[in-house]
């Protein structure tokens, strides 16, 4: 018994020492923590009695103050408003109905009542418009003295001096034909063809032979026919062109006896007055009145002259 006890004691001590090493290795800071707690306890708790006298040391545990908790206000939740339940429309099935054409009902025929005849309106007599009387043109007969003075004017005109004179024929075809016949029968007018060189041709001369005009009888104041030509004069022109073939640049001209042109120029000077020789151009027109040939609508440089002249015929007819 004595031998076994020391053996068990040594074994127990060996195991305890090994356990202590394990604890010391596993929990190295546990003892230090306990020691620090004991020191804190000792510093916090005053000792009322000497350590020696008190067989048991009474220790009080002072716990740390709890952490501050921040209190935040939480707003009360708003009441939830429930949306009204959506009522789904009842499902309906649509049917396509083909409409039949509706026959129009005939409207009743209403017979129109005859309108009453309008009452005759008494028309007031319209005032008659009095047209102004045309200005009376004085017809001036060319005297012998004027015709004699006209011969001097004709010589001036034949030398390329004096105004340019143009006298128009009537626009109506019938009036042109009557005037042409009057000039041929009573005034000795000749219708001839003039070529580009100024040669005159008639049917009375031989083929290709020009007409040697007698300047003592006929005037050198030639009128070139333009515009609408009387039918009888057109036939004369065609006959001359057939008789004298191959004329260069032919044109139809009218030639009057010297006495007729002297009467015309003397009458124009009497109407135009002293401005006759200074005029650039004189315009007028022929007209047949009661078998008399008159020259009217005389314009001197565009200005209308008062009066008209009656041409003296070359021979009785």
From TrEMBL:
<protein>
    <submittedName>
        <fullName>Uncharacterized protein</fullName>
    </submittedName>
</protein>
């Amino acid at each position: 018994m004595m031998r076994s006890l020391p053996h068990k004691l040594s074994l127990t001590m060996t195991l305890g020492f090994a356990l202590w090493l394990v604890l010391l290795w596993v929990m190295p800071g546990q003892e230090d923590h306990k020691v620090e707690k004991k020191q804190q306890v000792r510093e916090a708790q005053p000792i009322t009695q000497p350590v020696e006298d008190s067989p048991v040391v009474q220790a009080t545990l002072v716990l740390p103050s709890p952490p501050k908790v921040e209190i935040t206000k939480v707003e009360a939740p708003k009441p939830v408003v429930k949306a009204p339940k959506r009522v789904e429309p009842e499902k309906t099935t649509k049917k396509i109905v083909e409409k039949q054409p509706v026959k129009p009902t005939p409207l009743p025929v209403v017979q129109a009542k005859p309108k009453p005849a309008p009452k005759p309106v008494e028309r007031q007599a319209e005032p008659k418009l009095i047209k102004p009387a045309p200005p009376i043109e004085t017809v001036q007969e060319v005297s012998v003295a004027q015709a004699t003075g006209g011969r001097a004017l004709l010589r001036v005109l034949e030398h390329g001096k004096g105004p340019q004179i143009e006298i128009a024929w009537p626009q109506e075809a019938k009036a042109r034909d009557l005037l042409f016949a009057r000039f041929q029968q009573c005034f000795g007018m000749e219708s001839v063809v003039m070529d580009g060189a100024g040669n005159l041709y008639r049917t009375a001369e031989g083929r290709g032979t020009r007409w040697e005009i007698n300047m003592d009888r006929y005037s050198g104041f030639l009128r070139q026919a333009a515009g609408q030509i009387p039918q009888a004069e057109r036939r004369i022109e065609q006959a001359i062109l057939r008789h004298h073939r191959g004329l260069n640049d032919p044109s139809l001209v009218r030639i009057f006896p010297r006495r007729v042109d002297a009467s015309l120029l003397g009458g124009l000077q009497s109407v135009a007055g002293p401005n006759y020789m200074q005029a650039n151009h004189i315009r007028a027109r022929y007209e047949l009145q009661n078998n008399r040939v008159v020259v009217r609508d005389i314009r001197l440089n565009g200005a209308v002259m008062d009066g008209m002249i009656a041409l003296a015929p070359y021979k009785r007819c």
